[in-house]
Amino acid sequence: MSTPDLNLLVTLNVLLAEGSVARAARRLRLSPSAMSRALARLRETTGDPLLVRAGRGLVPTPRALELRERVGELVQEAEAALRPSETLNLKQLVWTFTLRTREGFVENFGPDLIARIAEQAPGVRLYFTQKLDKDSTPLRDGTIDLETGVVGDDTGPELRTQALFRDRFIGVVRSGHPLSEGAMTPARYAAGQHILVSRRGLKKGEIDEALEGLGLERQIATIVGSFSAALALARASDLIVSVPERYTGNLRADMHSFALPVPTSDVTISLLWHPRMDADPAHRWLRGCIRDVCAERRSDLSARFEAG
């Protein structure tokens, strides 16, 4: 059995990324005829047409879609292996890292993280972008470097993850609210008017299920799509809101927080990244900074809750 030409991996990676023989040829600085011959060799080697004509363009076959991510990773790993080894000099590092996060992360962890990075690597900038969904494509294609969130069934199976902290839901009301004094009971909690936070527009949550198990039902006065909006409403009214403790620490300033009188599940907030960045020194350093900042904030946020 003949040894395959590994140079074809680079060609295949570009062809699948561009979806066009002409564009792939320009990117690799080859003539269109040379790229066509390379595609013919790839078809012969893989036993699959890979790209087939659809109208005026080319579309990938199922086999090509299966190969696309795998081939991209192989090419990136090969490039990294052949790159000269360099010692990371944080003082000379000039780079912008993109972090995709849910609301609350920037408000609670951003200031300490930015201060730490400014001290260690003054040429590094952070670009925080909002996490609107759990699509893993931006991590795969390098549009973002890192993201935070809850790992679930819809998280890309190839992604690397590391737990940052566990979070629990707590109740929050304005300062001076009737619920800020006295013992909290399920009946007392359920009797108030509540704000439900739901990005998907759901009308009930885990708290409602727990109350129903006790024969109670809370009244939902309004549904909003973000914790910050919910806390702003609660701050200016007698409405009650339930939010994650650590993710909303700074957003709850000067409000009264209390432990929920019904059991709810904790959530684990994790750091996610693509495996191709695993060994990158700068990326590894940034991951360490985020882990350290989140760890340092745990005791501070817990102390605020006890004081509230």
What report would you give on this structure?
The N and C termini lie far apart (72 Å). This protein has helices at residues 7-18, 21-28, 32-46, 62-82, 105-120, 137-141, 186-190, 206-212, 227-235, 281-307, and strands at residues 51-54, 57-60, 95-101, 124-130, 146-149, 160-167, 169-173, 193-197, 219-224, 240-244, 256-259, 267-273. The longest helix is centred in the last third of the chain and has 27 residues, at 281-307. The radius of gyration is 26 Å and the shape is elongated. β1 (51-54) and β2 form a beta hairpin. The protein has three domains: 7-82, Winged helix-like DNA-binding domain superfamily/Winged helix DNA-binding domain (Arc Repressor Mutant, subunit A, Orthogonal Bundle), CATH 1.10.10.10; 90-167 and 268-307, Periplasmic binding protein-like II (D-Maltodextrin-Binding Protein, domain 2), CATH 3.40.190; 169-265, D-Maltodextrin-Binding Protein, domain 2 (3-Layer(aba) Sandwich). The strands form three sheets. The protein has a five-stranded mixed sheet with strand order 4-3-5-12-6, covered by helices on one side. A five-stranded mixed sheet has the order 9-8-10-7-11, covered by helices on one side. The protein is 41% helix and 21% strand. With 308 residues, the chain is an alpha/beta fold.
